[in-house]
Amino acid sequence: MTAPASNFQSVFPALAYAGLTSARTAQPPLSVAEIQQGIREIGELPLNRARTLPAQAYTSEEFFDWENKHLLRGGWQCVAHVSQIPQPGDFLNLDLLGEPLIVVRGKDDLVRVLSRVCPHRAMDIMPEGFGYDGHGPAEAKPDAAGCGHTRIFLCPYHAWTFELDGQLKACPEMHRADCFVRDDFQLKPFRSETWEGFIFVNLDGQAPLFAAGLPEMAADLAAFRPAEMKLVIAREWDCSFNWKVLVENFMESYHHLGIHHKTLQPMMPARDTWTEQERRHYVRAHLPYKDSVRDEYRAFAERGDFAEDLPPVPGLGDAQKSEWGLFLIHPTFLLATAPDRIIWYRLQPLGPNRLKLLTTTLVPAEVVARENFPHLREKAARLLTEFHLEDMEVCTAVQRGLYASGWQQGRLSHLEMPVWLFHRYLAARIRGVWPTDDQRAAPGQRT
Ligand code: FES
Ligand SMILES: [Fe+2]
Predict the structure, then answer these.
(1) Whether residues 121 and 29 fall in one domain
(2) Does residue 13 carry a pLDDT above 90?
(3) Which of 46, 74, 133, 408 is deepest in the core (most CB within 10 A)?
(4) Beta strands at 229-239 and 354-364: parallel, antiparallel or unpaired
(5) Domain with 396 in it: what CATH number?
(6) pLDDT of 258-317, one tens digit each?
(7) Which runs of consecutive H residues, i.e. helices, occur in 315-372?
């Protein structure tokens, strides 16, 4: 293993600073139409001729605005896992694409995603620091991860109150306002869907139904029973790189050879990784264990001594017990399955070169009940930070490269098929369709 967790504080601020200072690009400016044309041309190339996207796709404010409207607000973004809000009244706050949001479980046990913008005079009803000095019900104060519990939402500005479903409950001194209809004022609900325990939101309300496009992926994940898992680790990162840099990094395992040569490469050699056929809504890659690691893991699982390491998820098939799986649901849902855990990344793009990221780990509920769970959790948190720090370094440095005059359009290895599929998705959305709608699905690298 490389970078110990204690390095985080010293390494990371320097990286972030270096990224933020390079926001002026040496690349010639391209219009949104020119960037789109570049992506469309790349989307036509076969895998053995695949190239990287124009640098401006990662640096242009105008192109980010297009993505924001058509891919991000126009698509489904994952905001939470159900285990973060298990009880009625549990809620979680986050800001997504300029929208202050509450994800809340109502008295009716339904999960809703509501705006935090007060319909009176636009106050964020739970700004950071909410709950201080007697403002607002103390029990509603969100913790560091944005989670809290309440019976009611109170706007701290003029004390209007709202039910957990967003309906206005009370508004003092409004009785002289003519034609004031209380039902016209509520915390705006956004369209949301819960799929396999993950809560998704569609901010523009126009995206096609979410779960309908994913039956195969749900079947692939079924053995992990992700809806019954518990999110036990969450760590937030301020990233000075484009959201697509992270998606590409997460999904390809070619870089095990380089940046992860001490952490992931010895377990899952890059050369053995492979990607499934093209799908309309998602990308799926496999990272098989090296033979010796697979045998060791099998022996560990049979010994049944889980004092030092997480027990395997019960009920997994042979393949799932001896590999990691990577999933991307377009455009930003990133999930990795391991034999003993699920790793989920929540992305909150803030601009062409800024991203807020939450890295998380989920385990089966029965594992949380184990006496040694605090120890196992600490080890799992360390592992997540270790290899993510390696990824933070490369992603931050890549973004700097995308601004530089020395940048040139690169070529991809066949091991970067997930990146090529992601680019084909971008090209399809620019054409106004989804991958496989108007072109034959690309075949997988194994059957
Ligand atoms: S802005 Fe919320 S009560 Fe006035
Ligand atoms: Fe990585």
Answers:
(1) no
(2) no
(3) 74
(4) antiparallel
(5) 3.90.380.10
(6) 999 998 999 999 999 999 999 999 999 999 999 999 999 999 999 999 999 999 999 999
(7) 365-368
- Which ligand minimizes its atom distance to the CA of 157? 1
Query: Are residues 269 and 295 part of one domain?
Result: yes
**Residue 343 confidence class, pLDDT cut points 50, 70, 90:** very high
Residue in the structure block whose two tokens are 């040139």: 408
Best residue among 158, 169, 180 to mutate for probing ligand 1, ranked by most atoms within 8 Å of CB: 158
Three-state DSSP at 336 gives strand
pLDDT tens digit sequence for 218-259:
999 999 999 999 999 999 999 999 999 999 999 999 999 999
Q: Are 106 and 88 in contact (CB under 8 A)?
A: yes
Query: Does the C-beta of 120 come closer than 6 Å to ligand 1?
Result: yes
- pLDDT of amino acid 147: 84
Domain residues for the domain of 293 are 7-75+222-431
Kindly state whether residues 57 and 93 are assigned to the same domain: no
Q: Which residues pair with 238 in a beta bridge?
A: 356
Q: Number of helices (H) and strands (E) in the chain: give both, helices first.
A: 9, 17
How many whole angstroms from 117 Cα to the centroid of ligand 2?
37
